[in-house]
Amino acid sequence: MAPDSPSALPESFNITEYFLDRPAREHPDKLAISGVARAFTYGQLAELTNRVSSALLRQGFVPGARVLIALPDSAEFIAAFFGVVKIGAVAVPVNAMARAVDYEHYLKDCDARIVIVDARAWQEFASILNSCPETQIILAGNTDALADVTPRCATESAGTMRWKDWIEPASATLQVCRTKATDTAFVLYTSGSGGAPKGAVHQHKDMLATSRGFAHGVLGLHANDITFSVSKLFFAYGLGNGMYFPFSVGATTVLNPEKTKISQVIDIVTQYRPTVFFAVPTFYGALLKEAENGTRADFSSVRLAVSAGEMLPAAIFDKFRVRFGLQILDGIGSTEMLHMFLSSRPGKARAGSCGVPVPGYEAKIVDDEGREVLECEHGREHLAKHELEHGCEIGHLWVRGPSALAEYWGKPELTARTKREGNWVVTGDKFTRDAEGYYHYCGRTDDMLKIAGMWVSPMEVENALLGHPHVAEAAVVGVADANGLTYEVAYIVLAASLRGSEALAQQLCEYARANLVGYKCPREVRFCQELPKTATGKIQRFKLRGLET
After folding, report:
1. Half-sphere exposure of 421 toward its Cβ, with a 13 Å CA cutoff?
2. N or C: which terminus of the chain has fewer CB atoms within 10 Å of its end residue's CB?
């Protein structure tokens, strides 16, 4: 199936018709999903999706109604997502391993009428049902062990049904609802790396735009590809990687419903032989450590390795290329933009850079007044290192493109601060751009530090520390001294079997001084067992800052 060329987006468009019904008509017996207990062809997946749609219609669902989906990566997740949007309703996928407080936030924020939830998350949901008594619960997965937990889970009259009982009487055939390309299709919550998650509202056209720009324009996905995403389907990066990108070209996706484990991912890659592999920097780092410890990892089937989520350290880029013969294509995207808007290109990736704009997208770096910052004249060299000597300026990244969020759900003031005149979206990221047009990520705006009157990117300091053989992970935050001046504290997770000490802390400070301009070096090093992270692997620096107050 040849991908569509970049062109004007259609006025009438439904993502279920394009990404699932279309390939199901063209090759119903083609494998759509593997890697789970039961493989699904496109034809089988389309039938399951129709049953979800029919079951929702039977309950009186109308266009615009929200459905919360808390399922692991599976055929049920995909059928639920596409089944909701096929009838014009709004899919709201969330982490199937979240806590009760998170689910309560999602439910109240988007006002979902129905929740499709995995049985393993039932206990978390059961504790908040009194605060949302009108919500209908559909329990998927292994529900056999739940009968003794609470009687509510066994009776339809109490507002809860099992997945099998819900879809079994529903029709396997259904006409798609005629929706506009600009109708709301789904809401994705931000990862929470900077605080409470916010719901980014996306339209039917947005998946088509990111598929054309990144999946087709950058990755060159085709029908014979097999994709595998370590990142899960419930957030924007994984949703593209593991669902609608491969479906856009009639390819096969490998799904892993379990919590990510390095050994399991290695086994999946060996068994299912994916050709395109997606992960985040922390996973690539962990994979390299396993390989360096003697674990055999066969990536010979992989033609492209992709990274996003946070900046990929140059050391990981170089080590992965040496060990596996692959350049990791680093890029940056956001929930607000749905997927990548900057990305490295196959064969042209550079360590320390997340590339150039994806086809169909624009980016610019501006100062605090919104004036565009000129690129650094020093080319490929690490720009932040030259800031003091050459005046290279770190600025705020603004982007625009056809997949930008329509709004934040129920937050008009935040929407107005994020979406600016000319359809520019304020990303909240700090960047520099070199003379060759390559963009360099410096960190989140909220994470940036002002030290001795100069901007410091925590990620630059962290990457320098990661070069030390004893450092497994690092996070840098700012702390105010008695005079109100900011200094840096580095939180360090050491490599296996090592223990922290004052001598090692001093050694790491000296190592930083040997590799960074003086004002960028941490004053203190503190050791910890693990760093706080979101479910998507991003470091939650705001939690570390909270330890200092």
Report:
1. 1
2. C
In what order do the strands lie in the sheet containing 252-254? 40-41, 31-34, 252-254, 226-229, 276-279, 304-307, 328-333, 340-343, 356-357
pLDDT band for position 4 (cuts 50, 70, 90): very low
Q: pLDDT (tens digit, 9 = 90+) per residue, 174-201?
A: 999 999 999 999 999 986 555 578 999 9
Instruction: Note whether 487 and 533 are same-domain residues.
Output: yes
Q: Which of 408, 427, 447 is a domain's end point? A: 447
Q: What is the largest CA-CA distance in the chain?
A: 71
Q: How far apart are the first and last CA of the chain?
A: 56
* Residue 140: HSE in the Cβ half-sphere, 13 Å Cα cutoff: 21
Same domain, 529 and 383: no
**Does residue 33 contact residue 40 with C-beta atoms inside 8 Å?**
yes
Query: What is the β-pairing status of strands 486-494 and 524-527?
Result: parallel
Q: Which domain-ending residue is among 412, 447, 482? A: 447
Closest CA to 520 of 471, 472, 453, 469: 453
For strand 31-34 and strand 40-41, is the pairing parallel, antiparallel, or unpaired? antiparallel
Contact 85, 79 (CB under 8 A): no
Rounded to 5 degrees, φ, ψ at 377 are -85, 5
Judgement on whether residues 423 and 338 belong to the same structural domain of the protein: yes
For residue 415, what are the CA distances in angstroms to 109, 126, 198, 371, 409? Answer: 15, 33, 11, 21, 9
* Domain identity same for 493 and 420: no
Q: What is the CATH number of the domain that holds 453?
A: 3.30.300.30
User: How many structural domains is the chain composed of?
Assistant: 3
Ramachandran class of 22: left when φ > 0, alpha when ψ lies in -120 to 50, beta otherwise: alpha
Mind listing the pLDDT tens digit for each residue in 328-375?
999 999 999 999 999 999 999 999 899 999 999 999 999 888 888 865
